Amino acid sequence: MAETPKYSVSKKQNEIEIRQYSGYIQAEVTVEETNYKSAIERGFNLLAGYIFGNNISRQKIEMTTPVQASQSEKIAMTTPVTVTGESSFTVAFIMPAEYTLETLPQPKDNRVHFTRLPARSMAAIRFSGYFQKETIQKNKQRLSHWLEEQGFETEGDFIVAGYNPPWIPGFLARNEVLIQIKTDDETKK
């Protein structure tokens, strides 16, 4: 079974959880795509190349789950302000816990870089199926609505996470939408 980031659950309601994650390192690439599915496919291939040995020391790294993607819309800074319609996605693999920034092999592909994420609180909603825009959007809205009802404030972008290889039937696939929550005074219980 593939390694996943360690977390504890402080609150759960149906398919929504409030989680406390330990810190971890992720390898990531930024790709220009029009949707999550194509961004994940393209980003996955670049990151898989790195962990399968496309690095300076040709070292293989164990595959972990989930594959994560977050989207940020590009907005032109002109008058009038217009949205260009292009999207930039960051696709990430979590690195196995045994590695540090100093011990990870150096990528040959300069598009692959590392980010150390500190311990943090995240809200997550679990769903099955494929990475369809409508399904992702529906789960973002459900999670946002629930967080607002519960009085949580969020920060950062939504993250879409997939835990299964592409040959797993959609109805069995584990996917999530996550977002970081602010924890000024201890996470609400």
Explain how this protein is built.
This protein is of the alpha+beta class and 189 residues long. 18% of the residues lie in helices and 40% in strands. The protein is built from two helices and nine strands. The chain has helices at residues 36-51, 133-150; strands at 7-13, 16-21, 24-33, 67-76, 82-94, 113-117, 120-127, 154-162, 175-181. It has a nine-stranded antiparallel beta sheet with strand order 1-2-7-9-8-4-5-3-6. The radius of gyration is 17 Å and the shape is globular. The model is unreliable at 74-85 (pLDDT under 50).
Gist of the model:
The protein is of the alpha+beta class and 189 residues long. It has helices spanning 36-51, 133-150, and strands at residues 7-13, 16-21, 24-33, 67-76, 82-94, 113-117, 120-127, 154-162, 175-181. Strand 1 (7-13) and strand 2 form a beta hairpin.
List the SSEs and their pairings.
Elements (H helix, E strand, L loop, with lengths): L6 E7 L2 E6 L2 E10 L2 H16 L15 E10 L5 E13 L18 E5 L2 E8 L5 H18 L3 E9 L12 E7 L8
Antiparallel strand pairs: 1-2, 2-7, 3-5, 3-6, 4-5, 4-8, 7-9, 8-9
